[in-house]
Every structure is written in C-alpha cells, then in structure tokens.
Amino acid sequence: MTAAIRDLARLPLVDEVRVSEPIESVALKPEGPDAAAPAYLNAVAIVTTRLAPSVLLGYLHAIEQRHGRVRSERRSAREPGWEDRTLDLDLIAYGDVVSDDPALLLPHPRAAERDFVLGPWLAVDPDAVLPGVGRVDAALARLREPE
C-alpha cells in the first residue's frame, strides 16, 4: 500500500496526497462477506490534482497493474470484478462531478454502502461530501444504525 501511495504522489499535476490509516475488513464477494477469504486492507486517499477525472482513473489503473493487478472481464461496468486482487484503486468522487459514463461512474455507485470507504474518508476529511448522497459523516451514521 505504501508503494502505491508513493506512486500517487508522483503523478503529474498532483499537488498533495492525504491518506487515512488503513483498516482491515472482511473480503466482500458476490454472495456477500466471506470471512474465510483473506481480509482486505482499506484506506482512502484525498488527492489534490489538476488531472481530469478520466486521466486520473487511467493512472490509477496503471498503478494497480504495476503492483500485480490483473483486471478480468466483467458483465457490466456497474458490477465489480470479483477476483482476488493485490491492489484496488477506486475513484470514489471527484469534487462535485457526476458521471454515468460506464467508463467513469462518479461518484462510485456503491460508496455510500461501504463502511470501509466512508470511515477512512471521514478520518481524512471530516467535512467530506459524497455527491448525490450528502455529508459523509451522515451517510456513515445511517449505515451504522441498527436495523
């Protein structure tokens, strides 16, 4: 994870990278959480950049590839590639940009459902807002409400 963060900071037109502490979560598979699979380490990076979102996403995929990630074919852009992976860099949000382009879904369509995204994001940016959802702290509180 440290090497990928260094790679992010070295990208052209990137001025700053702030990163949360990593947290461990249960592997998430199509059937749901899989405690028998190796746990995931999750962190959120806030990147200050002048790169266009599509260009940034391309760089994220290149960093994944350099660290051994192989992207498999998926049935649709809205379904994650569920293979085990060495590194998964998602573009969760880019300011207030909203995109339904299958090549660049913004904000990430499942971000508001993921404690392991919202928690670390809030730790790095207490005032964070997820476009179309609202404040990250409120979204996290809703997620953690007992049913």
Automatic annotation (TrEMBL):
UniProt-listed InterPro entries: Hppk, Hppk_sf
Any Pfam family matching the protein: HPPK
GO terms, molecular function: 2-amino-4-hydroxy-6-hydroxymethyldihydropteridine diphosphokinase activity
CDD domains in the record: HPPK
Domain 7,8-dihydro-6-hydroxymethylpterin-pyrophosphokinase, residue spans: 2-126
Origin: domain of life: Bacteria
Catalytic activity: 6-hydroxymethyl-7,8-dihydropterin + ATP = (7,8-dihydropterin-6-yl)methyl diphosphate + AMP + H(+)
Entry keyword set: ATP-binding, Folate biosynthesis, Kinase, Nucleotide-binding, Transferase
EC supergroup of this enzyme: transferase
NCBIfam families recorded: folK
Pathway listed: Cofactor biosynthesis; tetrahydrofolate biosynthesis; 2-amino-4-hydroxy-6-hydroxymethyl-7,8-dihydropteridine diphosphate from 7,8-dihydroneopterin triphosphate: step 4/4
Gene: folK
EC number: 2.7.6.3
Species annotation: Microbacterium salsuginis
Protein name: 2-amino-4-hydroxy-6-hydroxymethyldihydropteridine diphosphokinase
